[in-house]
Amino acid sequence: MTELTTARLRLTPMTVADFEDLCRLWRDPAFTRQIGLPFMLPETVWLRLLRDIGHWQIMGVGNWAIRRREDDAWLGTVGIFDYRRDLVPAFGALEVGWGLVPAFHGQGYAFEAVTEALRYADDDLRLPRTTCMIAPDNAASFRLAAKVGFTPWVEGDLRGEKIQLLERFCK
Questions:
Q1: Residue 68 domain-assigned?
Q2: Does a structural domain hold residue 143?
Q3: What Gene3D superfamilies does its record include (predicted)?
Q4: Those residues with Cβ within 8 angstroms of residue 138's Cβ, 6 or more apart along the chain or in another chain
Q5: Of 16, 19, 102, 122, which alpha carbon lies 20 to 30 A from 72's?
Q6: Cα-based distances in Å from 52 to 64, 128, 147
């Protein structure tokens, strides 16, 4: 499992120590509203965390906790993964995803974390293509995705909900 660092951040593979922080994130209505997913009960967050830990074991990639280096504050998550989503059309490539605690929005942390995850995807994993999906009303994530090189690919359907799928080719 790979830990990554940037000037301000440490990206650490998810562990059970991240559970309480993840619960706070998934209970925050500003976060869940922005990404278009519902509030999550602790047992659902626990299952997601177990999935993320197992993802590293099986796939060699997964979600990282984003921590600020200066004080170890837990800022959110970023990752490279294959969740085998019930998505039409299927991604056909690994997905990149991110989510930040709303209190830390607007400070460049998400850009820094996603940029480092994509550097890892390009330089270390040598992935030819990555994908992401963004809820239609999430303007901030669309701006970030464009800034790091994602372009619109197709409108998708995820369990009956319309979602924008984007793609990025290795630099």
A1: yes
A2: no
A3: 3.40.630.30
A4: 34, 35, 36
A5: 122
A6: 9, 23, 26
Q: What's the pLDDT tens digit per position in 106-160?
A: 999 999 999 999 999 999 999 999 999 998 889 999 999 999 999 999 888 888 8
Instruction: Examine residue 165 and state whether it is found in any structural domain, yes or no.
Output: no
- Tens digit of each residue's pLDDT (9 = 90 or more) over 28-80: 988 887 776 777 899 999 999 999 999 999 999 999 999 999 999 999 999 99
Res. 1 pLDDT band, cuts 50 70 90: confident
Matching residue, tokens 């990282």: 64
Q: Which residue has the higher pLDDT, 149 or 1?
A: 149
Which amino acid, 17?
A: A
Asked whether residue 116 is domain-assigned, the answer is yes
Range of the domain at 13: 4-127
Surface-to-core class of residue 129, CB atoms within 10 Å of its CB (0-12 exposed, 13-18 middle, 19+ buried): middle
CA dihedral 9, 10, 13, 17 (to 10 degrees): -100
- CB atoms under 10 Å from CB of 10, counted, come to 16
Torsion of CA 91, 146, 171, 85, to 10 degrees: -20
CATH number at residue 70: 3.40.630.30
What pLDDT, on a 0 to 100 scale, did the predictor assign at position 30? Answer: 84
